[in-house]
């Protein structure tokens, strides 16, 4: 359970310290710090996407405070795969120190290098593949193939003087993968036999019974939907979901349609995937978006981002009639991805908007157009039984996922005392294979808001929510500096109120009276007078309208 904040004792030689900086209690911001003998290894460095209660926020980063003053001690960042929730915060880390080596597979590094190019950062990279071993300071790293919804995902095994840790990254056990690349259970078994002291395991689907459906089942469904479509087809998916784009390309080709990629990230990522051979593009299928308008509507498929209802993404703009591709009667829209927790309302608004425009909307709720990229409970049980880890730390999930994963571990015989539930900032120490909780850091959210990073606070977001939900009132009063009496005003302006501003006539005398009383008591401080105005107006609005707007008083002395 979450505990109160307390600092860990200084790290002893030969002891491995593990701090999940992000990814515990949330779907995103995956980042874990490992430290031994003064050196630090980081596994993943991802972002979290904002929810509706975080207005105006573009991205949420991990809190780098545990490493901000120790950047020179970092030997490398290992990236398990190329999804944003695992690589998206790398540019912000490298802005603090640009020459931290990045370790990952070919596709993962290609995706992050393209992203870093936009930030004008050229990283130091080390490309690895399954079976490779690398020594980085006191860490001996070993890489294992795992299957996920993006090619080239890797689990990482960290050998140190304190014992062996295995981190799966995101994974599942699809037995019929599209690219033929299985989660390497033979390697899991070998590692289990030699001994894994701590297992950091993906929890995202731990509360889903059984086994995740194979990706291969999606292809025929997409083919069937596209074959029945009479107008244009728009497919929305994550911009890095290479497997899904491959299936769309194949289904379009089989039905005599061409495909145009929509969205800068989609074009960038699929160009990289095709150049590296991860995406096999049928001849004469892709058409440049600018020329797609020349293709008859019953012969085109648009492959788009925006499956999560992001306000600026392509589908949202189509619903708002703010996109060159217009959706109407006879068109088909396929949402080929899962819902990120917290985004459900936004996605359902998109579905309603598209349906209202006359489109046939096909989504996970009414057709098999998406399968998860994460291991369900049955697969996790298999992995625990094969690996037989000494200690388990469920990661990558919200609290219900972490709890479910811990329960699965205990069902396979791992003692409750060896099953650890932590949150971002929980500090674990391991020595000779023994793990214990030794501290709890106070880590928060770091918001990216336009060009500012970390400047926006939770208090600012609260103000934004108040502005959006309760409205805004400004009060301007000019008072005599010597006597404190009101010379001009109060002048009151409101935004977000249905009522006419004349309703404030009844509160103006109350403000004048309160300021007069304050001046009689010798109050002259401008801030104190502004507080008097805020209290009077706030109490009146609350009683009269049952609202709690943002009140901005301005008292000017003359």
From TrEMBL:
<keyword id="KW-0698">rRNA processing</keyword>
<dbReference type="InterPro" id="IPR001279">
    <property type="entry name" value="Metallo-B-lactamas"/>
</dbReference>
<dbReference type="InterPro" id="IPR036866">
    <property type="entry name" value="RibonucZ/Hydroxyglut_hydro"/>
</dbReference>
<dbReference type="Pfam" id="PF22505">
    <property type="entry name" value="RNase_J_b_CASP"/>
</dbReference>
<dbReference type="Pfam" id="PF07521">
    <property type="entry name" value="RMMBL"/>
</dbReference>
<dbReference type="InterPro" id="IPR030854">
    <property type="entry name" value="RNase_J_bac"/>
</dbReference>
<keyword id="KW-0255">Endonuclease</keyword>
<keyword id="KW-0378">Hydrolase</keyword>
<feature type="binding site">
    <location>
        <begin position="370"/>
        <end position="374"/>
    </location>
    <ligand>
        <name>substrate</name>
    </ligand>
</feature>
<dbReference type="InterPro" id="IPR041636">
    <property type="entry name" value="RNase_J_C"/>
</dbReference>
<dbReference type="GO" id="GO:0016787">
    <property type="term" value="F:hydrolase activity"/>
</dbReference>
<feature type="domain" description="Metallo-beta-lactamase">
    <location>
        <begin position="28"/>
        <end position="222"/>
    </location>
</feature>
<dbReference type="InterPro" id="IPR042173">
    <property type="entry name" value="RNase_J_2"/>
</dbReference>
<comment type="similarity">
    <text>Belongs to the metallo-beta-lactamase superfamily. RNA-metabolizing metallo-beta-lactamase-like family. Bacterial RNase J subfamily.</text>
</comment>
<keyword id="KW-0269">Exonuclease</keyword>
<keyword id="KW-0862">Zinc</keyword>
<keyword id="KW-0694">RNA-binding</keyword>
<comment type="function">
    <text>An RNase that has 5'-3' exonuclease and possibly endonuclease activity. Involved in maturation of rRNA and in some organisms also mRNA maturation and/or decay.</text>
</comment>
<dbReference type="InterPro" id="IPR011108">
    <property type="entry name" value="RMMBL"/>
</dbReference>
<dbReference type="Pfam" id="PF00753">
    <property type="entry name" value="Lactamase_B"/>
</dbReference>
<dbReference type="InterPro" id="IPR004613">
    <property type="entry name" value="RNase_J"/>
</dbReference>
<protein>
    <recommendedName>
        <fullName>Ribonuclease J</fullName>
        <ecNumber>3.1.-.-</ecNumber>
    </recommendedName>
</protein>
<comment type="subunit">
    <text>Homodimer, may be a subunit of the RNA degradosome.</text>
</comment>
<keyword id="KW-0540">Nuclease</keyword>
<keyword id="KW-0479">Metal-binding</keyword>
<dbReference type="InterPro" id="IPR055132">
    <property type="entry name" value="RNase_J_b_CASP"/>
</dbReference>
<dbReference type="Pfam" id="PF17770">
    <property type="entry name" value="RNase_J_C"/>
</dbReference>
<keyword id="KW-0963">Cytoplasm</keyword>
